[in-house]
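Hi Y.,

Following your request, here is the sequence exactly as I used it, all 71 residues.
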Amino acid sequence: MKYLIVIEQTATGFSAYSPDLPGCVSTGATREETEQNMREAIEFHLDGLRLEGAPIPLPATVSSYVEVSAA
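Below is the corresponding structure, written out as tokens. Let me know if you'd prefer a different format.
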């Protein structure tokens, strides 16, 4: 499955979350590290849901950019 992740720059590196998986977050020093950490966090999160017998949320969030004039 492919889950959308949002990566944001912080004062000390980067943080990430997935809108489709509430509570699943990660951080890293670089974007690449944050993405890898988030991949591992999602796998861990899904394993936990399976162990609890909880449903696995299907990826549903989409993203898009909109261009606007900054003037």
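The beta strands are 6-9, 14-17, 25-28.

Thanks again,
Q.
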